[in-house]
Amino acid sequence: MVTGREDVTDSVGLLISILVRYPEVATINFDPGRQVLKFNFIVSRVLNRRELTNIKKQLLDSIEVFSMLEGKQTRISHISHQICDHLTMIEVQRDVETLVQEEIALIVQLLRQLLDDNLVAEANDSFFEEELLIQEEIIEHMLDSIRVTAEDKPLFAFREGGRVLVFNK
Question: Which domain of life is it from (predicted)?
Answer without folding.
Answer: Bacteria
